[in-house]
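Suppose you are handed only these lines of text.
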Amino acid sequence: MIHHCFVVDARDKIVVQKKFWIITVDIRRVEEFAARVKESQVLLCEEIGPTKFIGKPLGRGVVILCAESFDEDNVLQDKLETVTQKFQQVLTYQLEFEEFMERLEDFVVTTLKVSIIGYGGVGKTTLVTLMSGGTPPRTYTPTVAIDIQKVEGARIGTYEISCWDFAGQDRFRKLWELYFRGSRIVLLVTDSTLENVLNSKDIIDLIRRKEIPAEVLAIANKQDLPGALKPSLVQRILGVRVYGMVAIDTANRAKALDIIREALRRATPEQVFHVERSDMAF
Ligand SMILES: Nc1nc2c(ncn2[C@@H]2O[C@H](COP(=O)(O)OP(=O)(O)OP(=O)(O)O)[C@@H](O)[C@H]2O)c(=O)[nH]1
Ligand SMILES: [Mg+2]
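From them, the structure of the protein bound to guanosine-5'-triphosphate can be written out as follows.
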């Protein structure tokens, strides 16, 4: 995720500083990076700790975006280009500075891929429809292969959520591992019956075997049905974090989105800055 934007002017003053997500960046690193861009006068992309810095000169100043290390360079470059053009408009009085600041977040939106897996009929498509603010279907229409849906009106930081809703029926299951790639979050949906939960454990094992570098969590869906296993029990069986859900109830939209927000928080690497003793002034 792009989590910060900075603009540094010709006199090394930071004239724009905007934070979009819980990650912290060390301002000194930003200043040092800005100095390197100024000196080289070309677009630079550097990884400093867990943060990817990308910056380009604008006049005698610099525009910088900070993102996470797995964010793709070409996507970041594209966003940097947009921000630079918009700031250029500020400098030429085509755009108000306040408007630039207000819209800045929109200029740096990228996509979070969430894979939704689980056996046929457990409620994956229902859950995606719920998150998108639609009316969840009451009849069962099995998904064919895969259905990709953007979740409108639900941004997390600068991420827009894209749900990859996989078909759960046997004949489609081979496709899953092909499409996991680039997924930050994998949501495993079960219908909270013992049989389905036990079967779903195999899916967790598959994910572990393939070493998919994603945050994996499970939804114990259909909690409204009699005999539904409690989320805490499902969690003990599956060994991943489990949330209870009734995906056919539209009142649960915010809850479903919060589960993803929470997962992303947990998937955000801790930022630890090491300060040399010689750099400290008391
Ligand atoms: N009672 C109840 N029914 C639900 C719930 N969530 C989904 N359903 C129903 O379960 C059925 C199957 O839902 P889908 O969302 O299509 O299932 P799916 O996991 O996408 O299935 P595949 O596409 O075949 O993998 C539908 O009839 C839904 O209405 C729930 O929380 N409670
Ligand atoms: Mg489906």
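What can we learn from it? The domain at 110-267 is CATH 3.40.50.300 (Rossmann fold). The pocket of guanosine-5'-triphosphate (ligand 1) is lined by residues 118, 120-126, 137-140, 142-143, 167-169, 221-222, 224-225, 246-248 (CB under 6 Å).
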